[in-house]
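Tokens as discussed.
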């Protein structure tokens, strides 16, 4: 888990049995019914233990085995999860309770009186993330186990097998020497995704080929190693996670969206998680943040979210997430704040200008087309009906009052979350469904935990949460403790 800030767990003591069953159904529906429900069930059963282990071992909590000895539990609110003196802390919490009628855009999910509660603390703040917490975990464990050997910069290059069982792994260190590691119980691969391997992307998830990637060096080694031992890939149509949380806040708000030609292209009440699909058919753009292979022709994934200075007066039903006051937005405007904190300075891309002409210039979209798009949008707002794209009337607000706001969004690939087929214990399976003895594949390397075109976005932190959980499940299972 080298990236990200929020992992989440289902808290069984605050949920009902039927609520958890409904969550599994809900999640699978967002995965186009292609998830392995046994894996979803395993996550629901074990994520609380895994998350609490993670927070305690990282020493980030008020009361930990590295603090005063008492345990943190899922009732611990995030305000009391403390800064550990190294600036790494729980800075936010987006926990939630699936209960009653759960609404997502046009869809509703009925939980009735049942509950499925998820605990979702965020570790950071940015640019610190879960990777920093993991480093602390390793350091803390080493304090207790002086003979624990860790080998970084030593990628696994070959699995060792004997009579169909995986018995070890060969790594290649920075000096180019090969090291053989013999497994007493099993090999657990947790090598992440393959989004930087162009050939694998083309074969398994071509939708993301024209988009920039947030990660580097994710070459799909683990997939290849596992397949060399008899594992097989999840069927075609792998699940992708594509976001931009960094250019500005209010990423879900259905403001006016324009492509980089200045044209409106969608009903904005679509959902952030699906923008990658829509933008596949919009023009590429040559921006400042591009993968090398896109520098000549640009990449897909760019659009501008436009609103006017009156947005704080818009009625509550105009907002999906909640209004963020202009003062909070300042740190996302390049150059507006001397040393903005809690943001990636190279990714902020929000603009606030007195005229639309100026805004178009800063966003690098053609003013004449932008103006025509805004005029048409304002006309539809006056009419109270979006004849062009069908956006619900409560989200239609004219853009007329200066200063004008524009966020240039850059949707990139956060992760690929499909991998080789495993079972609910994290054990790799052959195409015939047989366990490959001695081999576990966890995190984004395993699946199908999802299965749809897009990562489901109903529960913040599900991705990291399942990675923590399946890491723990695999280790325990390999030790015969599950
Ligand atoms: C910017 C960003 C923000 C994100 N935010 C969130 C978030 O807030 N919440 C959330 O749930 N998800 C988030 N995600 C997604 C989440 O980070 C990933 O799904 C998760 O980190 C995957 O964990 P993993 O252990 O499977 O793989 P990774 O985190 O990719 O870790 C795999 C590790 O294996 C190493 N490795 C690769 N090949 C080898 C080899 N041959 N030998 C040895 N080691 C190898 C890699 O170097 C890497 O360190 C975010 C992703 C990005 C890029």
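Sequence:
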């Amino acid at each position: 888990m080298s990236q990200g800030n929020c992992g989440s767990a289902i808290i069984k003591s605050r949920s009902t049995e039927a609520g958890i069953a409904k969550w599994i159904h809900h999640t699978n529906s967002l995965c186009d019914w292609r998830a392995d429900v046994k894996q979803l069930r395993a996550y629901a059963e074990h994520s609380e233990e895994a998350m609490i282990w993670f927070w305690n071992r990282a020493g980030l909590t008020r009361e930990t085995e590295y603090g005063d000895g008492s345990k943190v539990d899922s009732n611990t609110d995030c305000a009391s999860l403390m800064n550990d003196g190294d600036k790494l802390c729980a800075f936010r919490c987006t926990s939630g309770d699936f209960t009653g009628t759960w609404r997502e855009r046009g869809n509703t999910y009925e939980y009735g009186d049942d509950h499925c509660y998820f605990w979702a603390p965020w570790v950071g703040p940015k640019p610190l993330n879960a990777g920093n917490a993991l480093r602390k975990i390793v350091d803390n464990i080493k304090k207790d186990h002086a003979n624990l050997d860790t080998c970084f910069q030593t990628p696994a290059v070959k699995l060792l097998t004997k009579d169909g069982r995986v018995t070890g792994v060969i790594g290649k260190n920075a000096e180019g020497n090969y090291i053989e590691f013999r497994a007493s119980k099993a090999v657990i691969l947790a090598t992440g995704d393959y989004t930087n391997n162009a050939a694998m992307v083309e074969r398994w998830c071509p939708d993301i080929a024209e988009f920039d990637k947030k990660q580097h060096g994710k070459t799909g080694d683990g997939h290849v190693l596992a397949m060399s031992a008899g594992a097989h890939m999840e069927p075609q149509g792998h699940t992708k996670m594509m976001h931009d949380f960094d250019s500005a806040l209010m990423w879900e708000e259905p403001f006016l969206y324009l492509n980089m030609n200045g044209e409106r292209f969608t009903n904005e009440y679509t959902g952030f998680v699906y923008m990658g699909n829509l933008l596949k058919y919009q023009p590429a753009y040559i921006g400042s943040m591009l993968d090398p292979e896109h520098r000549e022709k640009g990449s897909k994934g760019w659009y501008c979210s436009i609103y006017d200075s009156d947005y704080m007066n818009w009625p509550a039903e105009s907002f999906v997430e909640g209004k963020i006051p202009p003062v909070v937005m300042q740190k996302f405007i390049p150059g507006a704040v001397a040393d903005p904190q809690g943001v990636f300075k190279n990714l902020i891309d929000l603009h606030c200008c007195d005229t639309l002409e100026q805004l178009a210039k800063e966003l690098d979209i053609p003013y004449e087309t932008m103006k025509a798009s805004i005029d048409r949008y304002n006309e539809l707002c006056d009419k109270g009906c979006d004849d062009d794209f069908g956006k619900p009337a409560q989200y239609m607000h004219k853009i007329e009052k200066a200063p004008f706001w524009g966020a240039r969004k850059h949707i990139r690939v956060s992760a690929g979350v499909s991998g080789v087929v495993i079972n609910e214990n994290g054990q790799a399976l052959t195409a015939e469904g047989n366990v490959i003895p001695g081999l576990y594949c966890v995190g984004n390397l395993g699946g199908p935990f999802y299965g749809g075109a897009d990562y489901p976005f109903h529960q913040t932190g599900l991705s990291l949460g399942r990675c923590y959980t399946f890491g723990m499940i695999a280790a325990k299972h390999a030790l015969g403790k599950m």
